[in-house]
Amino acid sequence: MSLEWKLSTDGIDWEELSALYRAAPLGEKSPLHLQKVFSNSMFKCFVYENAKLVAVGRALADGADCSYICDIAVSPGHQGTGLGKQVVSKLMEMSCGHKKIILYAVPGKEPFYRKFGFLRMKTAMAIFENQKQQVEKGYLSEA
């Protein structure tokens, strides 16, 4: 598998990125939304095979204290190949030097991220746009 890695948003096809999130499947994210969040992220990885986007990830970071890794997506045909691990590793490498690296993951994927050294936070809390839906999906607990 010959892969091309891009670390900037230059020339990104936002429609193609939106389609990757749907296929991964990580839900519906509009091209404009993705353009905004990736453009505002300090670190990003776009991985191509034969000019087709096959994996992506980003990290919001402040350059010193905190880097937040999120939105890791791998095309179904490339899942299980180690590509997701490479994307997370690259974002962790880029985040090196921050006092803490935080990660937000789909419920059930925690064992994958534990392999990198991530541990569950006991005090992490969140407010989502649709709290009830996120409780139902397992992202939040009211306990």
Automatic annotation (TrEMBL):
<dbReference type="InterPro" id="IPR000182">
    <property type="entry name" value="GNAT_dom"/>
</dbReference>
<dbReference type="InterPro" id="IPR016181">
    <property type="entry name" value="Acyl_CoA_acyltransferase"/>
</dbReference>
<dbReference type="GO" id="GO:0005737">
    <property type="term" value="C:cytoplasm"/>
</dbReference>
<keyword id="KW-0012">Acyltransferase</keyword>
<keyword id="KW-0808">Transferase</keyword>
<protein>
    <submittedName>
        <fullName>GNAT family N-acetyltransferase</fullName>
    </submittedName>
</protein>
<dbReference type="Pfam" id="PF00583">
    <property type="entry name" value="Acetyltransf_1"/>
</dbReference>
<feature type="domain" description="N-acetyltransferase">
    <location>
        <begin position="3"/>
        <end position="143"/>
    </location>
</feature>
<dbReference type="InterPro" id="IPR045039">
    <property type="entry name" value="NSI-like"/>
</dbReference>
<dbReference type="GO" id="GO:0008080">
    <property type="term" value="F:N-acetyltransferase activity"/>
</dbReference>
